[in-house]
Design a protein that fits this description.
five-stranded parallel β-sheet, globular, three-stranded antiparallel β-sheet, about 35% helix, alpha/beta, 8 strands, Rossmann fold
Length: about 250
């Protein structure tokens, strides 16, 4: 990804680079991804799904190409579809929360340049992102704060961000693609802090299975363009799920 400030006073311009075909590099404006709805892409190969079966969204997007492949290439299509499925699942959780708490607070830990706010905004939600200093500065530069959406500089492990959350109308905490990079004991501490500070709130996060996390530690996985995901110190297991359920204040997990 590259960032260019452009002429003085102009908005920053961001491009995303991907590899297509036989190592041909393609560059596209970041805003191209914002303008494409997941629903606009259609499956181009058949897949089996019995009525009432589980994981329909996953099977659907695993069979999808067209607009996403045309814009971002095909070498990384499986990774990209996985990200699309994950984003769609998070959007579903946020919309369900806002249906119950229209003026609720959504807190995104490690949001990066995610544009989820614009996909799920109901006009009244209060949105807070928590980012480390460099990421926060870039996000504010590209996506300036508004009266209902702002970025707070800090670590997700530093409980001071919790003081900035208005919990009067309900709270939903999101940690998309981030907690697998944090040590397990710190994750448990974060869960316990959230349950103590925000009784009745929701916490949504994702993590790979333990075998995948172990593979990243050993450097076994590589994206088509050569990128290696950072080591993930833990992955979900039945034992860790039981630990989460046993945390004080956790109702379901």
């Amino acid at each position: 990804m590259s960032v260019s400030a452009g002429p003085e006073g102009a908005a920053p311009y961001v491009e995303v680079s991907s590899v297509v075909g036989r190592r041909e590099r393609r560059r596209r404006p970041l805003l191209d991804s914002v303008s494409v709805r997941f629903e606009d892409a259609r499956p181009v190969r058949p897949f089996r799904w019995p009525p009432g079966g589980r994981y329909f969204p996953g099977w659907y997007w695993a069979a999808t190409t067209r607009q996403h492949a045309q814009r971002f290439g095909t070498d990384n299509r499986w990774w990209a579809r996985g990200m699309a499925v994950r984003a769609r699942c998070y959007d579903r959780e946020v919309r369900a929360f806002l249906a119950r708490h229209p003026r609720g607070a959504v807190v995104c830990l490690g949001e990066g340049l995610e544009t989820q706010f614009w996909r799920v905004d109901n006009g009244t939600v209060q949105w807070l992102g928590v980012e480390l200093a460099d990421s926060a500065a870039l996000r504010r530069r590209l996506l300036p704060d508004t009266d209902r959406r702002r970025t707070l500089t800090g670590s997700l492990l530093d409980e001071r961000w919790m003081r900035e959350v208005d919990a009067s109308d309900g709270v939903l905490v999101l940690a998309q693609g981030v907690l697998m990079y944090v040590a397990w004991d710190r994750v448990r501490a974060l869960v316990e802090a959230c349950t103590a500070r925000f009784p009745g709130a929701g916490l949504v996060f994702d993590t790979p299975p333990a075998w995948f996390a172990a593979g990243t530690v050993r450097g076994r996985f590589r994206y088509p363009a050569g990128y290696r995901p950072p080591p993930m110190p833990w992955g979900m297991t039945p034992a860790r799920l039981r630990e989460l359920r046993a945390c004080p204040g956790v109702a379901t997990a």
